[in-house]
């Protein structure tokens, strides 16, 4: 009898819990992307005023419930000295969301170097990757196809993993829902590689 009730309780209250890393250089729009994700999936969430967001020093955490799972975001600071901490989170992550400031041509090479170092880390083998070409609302921004040419310049970079790219304006909310929907789908497709944690809320 107990096992039957426990099974029912698990079915009703436990949800699969996953972790997605939001990476990229400082000022790429990572925290804005995170805040828009929380707002678009929970209309009661008021969030932080987007024009008040400052550079992340350390870590921002977000948590959303969608499609029967709990998705936790770790938004990590992108300053050069903070990038050395990224790999501490790789082993626990179920997806990577890499955000690029498409308008910042001067630092595009720096972003590419950080991306290459991240994506070749063995702890991320097979982990789904979403490439977000952010700030597309700025007229001089590079297009998604140009960003892909620069960052995904060979199949060896991606390896055997789920991969998708999206054109976005985190400030306006464009591309955010598509990004989250793809990330959730990719996590579920790859659950055999990285099983979920269990959540009771």
TrEMBL record:
GO biological process terms held by the UniProt record: Golgi to plasma membrane protein transport; intracellular protein transport; protein localization to Golgi apparatus
Keyword Nucleotide-binding included in the entry's annotation: yes
Cellular component per GO, a single term: Golgi apparatus
UniProt binding sites for GTP: 24-31, 78, 134-137
GO molecular function: GTP binding; GTPase activity; metal ion binding
Binding site for Mg(2+): 31, 56
Family annotation (InterPro entries): P-loop_NTPase (IPR027417), Small_GTP-bd (IPR005225), Small_GTPase_ARF (IPR024156), Small_GTPase_ARF/SAR (IPR006689)
Alphabetized Pfam families for the sequence: Arf
UniProt KW keywords: GTP-binding, Magnesium, Metal-binding, Nucleotide-binding
Function: Trans-Golgi-associated GTPase that regulates protein sorting. Controls the targeting of ARL1 and its effector to the trans-Golgi. Required for the lipidation of chylomicrons in the intestine and required for VLDL lipidation in the liver.
Alphabetized NCBIfam families for the sequence: small_GTP (TIGR00231)
Subunit comment: Interacts with SYS1.
Name of this protein: ADP-ribosylation factor-related protein 1
Organism: Oppiella nova
């Amino acid at each position: 009898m107990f096992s039957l009730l426990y099974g029912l309780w698990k079915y009703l209250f436990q949800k699969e819990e996953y972790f997605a890393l939001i990476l990229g250089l400082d000022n790429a729009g990572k925290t804005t992307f995170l805040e828009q994700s929380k707002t678009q999936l929970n209309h009661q969430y008021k969030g932080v005023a987007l024009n008040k967001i400052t550079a992340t020093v350390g870590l921002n955490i977000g948590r959303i419930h969608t499609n029967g799972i709990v998705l936790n975001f770790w938004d990590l600071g992108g300053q050069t000295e903070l990038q050395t901490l990224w790999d501490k989170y790789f082993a626990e992550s179920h997806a990577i969301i890499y955000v690029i400031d498409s308008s910042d041509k001067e630092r595009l090479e720096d972003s590419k170097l950080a991306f290459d170092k991240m994506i070749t880390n063995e702890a991320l083998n097979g982990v789904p990757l979403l490439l977000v070409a952010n700030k597309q609302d700025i007229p001089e921004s590079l297009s998604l196809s140009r960003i892909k040419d620069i960052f995904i310049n060979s199949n060896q970079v991606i390896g055997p993993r789920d991969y998708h790219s999206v054109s976005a304006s985190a400030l306006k909310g464009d591309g955010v829902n598509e990004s989250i929907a793809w990330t959730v789908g990719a996590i579920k497709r790859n659950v055999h590689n990285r099983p979920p944690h269990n959540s009771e809320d």
